[in-house]
Here is the input.
Amino acid sequence: MHNAYFDFAAPANEPVYAYAPGSPEKAALKKQLAAFKATQADIPMYINGQEVRTGKTVDLRPPHEHQHKLGHFHYGDASHVNAAIDAALAARAQWAAMPWEQRAAIFLKAAELIAGKYRYHMNAATMLGQSKNAYQAEIDSACELIDFLRFNVHYVSEIYRQQPVSSAGVHNRLEYRGLEGFVLAVTPFNFTAIAGNLPASAAMCGNVVVWKPADTQVFAAHEFMKIMIEAGLPAGVINLVYVDGPVLGDVVFKHPDFAGIHFTGSTGVFQQMWKTIGENIQRYKTYPRIVGETGGKDFVVAHKSADPAVVATALARGAFEYQGQKCSAASRAYLPGNIAQEVKEKLVAQLKTMKVGTTEDFSNFINAVIDERSFNKIAKYIDNAKQAEGVQIIAGGKYDKSVGYFIEPTVIETKDPKYVTMCEEIFGPVLTIHVYDENKFEEILEVVNTTSPYALTGSIIAQDRYAINLATDKLVNAAGNFYINDKPTGAVVGQQPFGGARASGTNDKAGSAMNLYRWMSARTIKETLVPPTDYKYPFVQEA
Ligand SMILES: NC(=O)c1ccc[n+]([C@@H]2O[C@H](COP(=O)([O-])OP(=O)(O)OC[C@H]3O[C@@H](n4cnc5c(N)ncnc54)[C@H](O)[C@@H]3O)[C@@H](O)[C@H]2O)c1
Ligand SMILES: N[C@@H](CCC=O)C(=O)O
Here is the structure.
């Protein structure tokens, strides 16, 4: 019995804990970090609610201390992907038929568990597994994940409430079905919140899901999966597998019941997936929904009226928080000649105070990059810059992987606005600056707009309102998230729906109703209350 409309009102954003010296939250987090470090985790896959161990294990190690083992996870193969799909499809009918308020309660309970007794589990797992400092973990694996769960429950309720009009004698209604098949969620290493949200948002809408996280994010993904099970998620609704990407793709993209992909990761991987889906289109029972949020080459453009301290701080935080491993991270900056020197001096002074090291030492602002492959790739960009003509390293430039994958926050200055580090996504603590003639603001906006194929985030920093207006207009398609007098990172669920266009993705805005519509397939039902019994039009006269 559910004879009522149940209300899921708009929530407030989860408050961010400060982890100040001597605070109880800092003590609790330190305790959980020590507990994880003292244990060897044995992490299974979850298929049909069962823990699956293959014996083929992969070690988990903190990127900032690669000689320490946190444990291992069990790696699967094509047979596990098939089993996960079978389990999902078997769970589908019952899950899709469950009344919304019952489904919603599971995700709201998960949010409560993360906000309360598992907050430090989520944050400590993210700090150790992905090398995020306490603040960066708190805004991700606690607050943003909680917000995704709570706000999406509210948005789904709002969507379900939307109904068509009915003319006299007719009752029209819209039913928001889940997709007919299973959804694949493929998630990145850099945000625990995104990893949790991609399977959860689809499942919330009545879908069943196969979820594959990045290998380097499994430690925290596993904590989230355990919380979902404790919150009451039925067996088979979300099936968590750890497999090689191409092995996964080979099974999923050939399956007739493949109904959609919820992806976040790099542009190349997404484009390859899209191509494969296109090649297999005739195999599917339904046109798959393809949702992908991908790379960025995010800009900060300062106007000659900007306050140099504001620009320097937006760059220090926007480019270097979480070692620049945010899709939104500022990685190219355009500084007007009149304030460039002052901005650079202030920025370099701020960077000198940023300590680099482990996440367990809370005084470190910068931690390690995710793995050796990423370290080597970033180091190569730095090495090339050291030798390039017209290019100068004005801060950082050193790196060392003997203990952890540490790279100093590095600032490159180039005379060429199309130098490679102004164009390509590096995904590390490297910012490139180009100084332009302060009287050529409109021309530089054109350069900003045409330099990279991406359009994810970007900022204009200025005091002059005409300049702000001009940049807002000229850069209309250059960023899906556009900031005025702020850094281009740190979108908050419910406040700045997130996503970019061009090569940055399908711009379906995670943490908004726009995203949730993609996981629904509406059925229109028209009911005629007193059906006609004569075929003739009412206005046709007898001859
Ligand atoms: N736009 C956004 O909202 C957003 C958010 C976070 C990260 N990102 C982007 O993600 C990237 C960094 O994350 P990453 O390094 O985890 O990305 P990635 O593309 O290497 O991996 C993402 C996921 O895809 C899987 N994968 C890789 N190759 C695959 C294949 N051939 N078939 C199937 N799956 C495959 C990975 O195992 C992982 O689970 C950056 O480009 C960043 O800009 C974008
Ligand atoms: N939503 C995050 C970025 C997610 C991508 O890595 C931000 O706005 O900084």
User: Anything to note?
Assistant: The CA atoms of residues 206 and 533 lie 39 Å apart. The pocket of 5-oxo-L-norvaline (ligand 2) is lined by residues 190-191, 326-328, 489-491, 498 (CB under 6 Å). The chain has two domains: 24-162+181-294+505-525, 298-484.
